[in-house]
Design goal:
Low-confidence stretches: none
CATH superfamily: Gcn5-related N-acetyltransferase (GNAT)
CATH class: Alpha Beta
Order of helices and strands: EHHHEEEHEHEEH
Number of domains: 1
Shape: globular
Mean pLDDT: 91
CATH topology: Aminopeptidase
Strand content: 25-35%
Distance between the termini: 16 Å
Radius of gyration: 16 Å
Helix content: 25-40%
Number of strands: 7
Length: 174
């Protein structure tokens, strides 16, 4: 099932839900958080990150179900992309694919970035399939890049360039 999502500029009204998701064991491990997160500490991080664009992912009812982030390096016209669907019941409905397309449009059209890149864990086959389908190219493996639970985990690095995105968009109308 594919559900249409919209993006809304992230604001304080999204903090409590986001903190609940980020404090969950699943997302905590995914992002490698070591300290507890609360609404106040999260809000301080958001306000101290002026080069990070955050959008709340809303489903067709307008419910906040996840977030996309783009950490922009203006000097290199590059953005590091992160996304998560925090509400378990919202997963598998196509919201991530729509949110990805909308974020890439913001990155390449509005922000005029040249490159968007991201990481995946090698066992996250669903994410890798999504990114590959939307034109991301595997650049390589960062071996033993993340330490979690006393072990090291490798991660894959993906990127997409503006001209690749434009060609894919013209060709497939994603």
């Amino acid at each position: 099932m594919t559900e249409t999502a919209t993006l809304r500029a992230y604001g304080p009204e999204h903090d409590a839900t986001t903190v609940r998701w980020l404090d969950s064991g699943e997302l905590r491990a995914t992002f490698g958080f070591r300290r507890a997160i609360n609404v106040e500490s999260h809000r301080r991080w958001v306000e101290a990150s002026p080069d990070t664009y955050i959008w709340a992912i809303l489903d067709t009812r307008g419910a906040h179900c996840g977030n996309t982030l783009l950490h922009v390096n203006a000097r290199h016209c590059s953005g590091y992309f992160q996304m998560y669907i925090g509400e378990p019941a919202a997963r598998g409905r196509g919201l991530g694919a729509t949110a990805l397309r909308l974020t890439l449009a913001n990155a390449f059209e509005t922000l005029a970035l040249h490159r968007v890149w991201l990481h995946t864990f090698a066992d996250n086959l669903a994410a890798e399939a999504l990114y590959r389908k939307h034109g991301f190219v595997l650049e390589g493996i960062e071996r033993d890049a993340i330490q979690a639970d006393g072990r090291f985990i490798s991660q894959n690095r993906w990127s997409q360039l503006a001209d690749e995105w434009r060609r894919l968009r013209e060709w497939s109308e994603l």
